Fold this sequence. Notes:
Elements: E1 3-4, E2 26-36, E3 41-50, E4 54-58, E5 68-73, E6 80-88, E7 91-96
Antiparallel strand pairs: 1-2, 2-3, 2-5, 3-4, 4-7, 5-6, 6-7
Amino acid sequence: MMIHITERSIGVGGEVFPDRRGEQRRRVFKGAVLRFDGGYASSECVVRSLSDHGARLCFGDALAIPQQFQMRMSDGVAFRQVEVRWRRGGDVGVRIA
């Protein structure tokens, strides 16, 4: 079951902010593999929210994650091109091509 993220779930410190996303995201808990540096380097992460063209990825340490990479989710067949849009601690927001 996927729970849709609403405006109320974006509160920080009790304050509610309007959702600025162009698409509605769904909360998920999926593994993903990242591929970068021409396929010579890889990393794993957990996808915590997902839309058709974006996602929030969680890492233990997101500092080594490049600005652009390819990603394949655990239930996916093909790698998709991804671009980092924001970083916050171990979380990274991405745009999926």
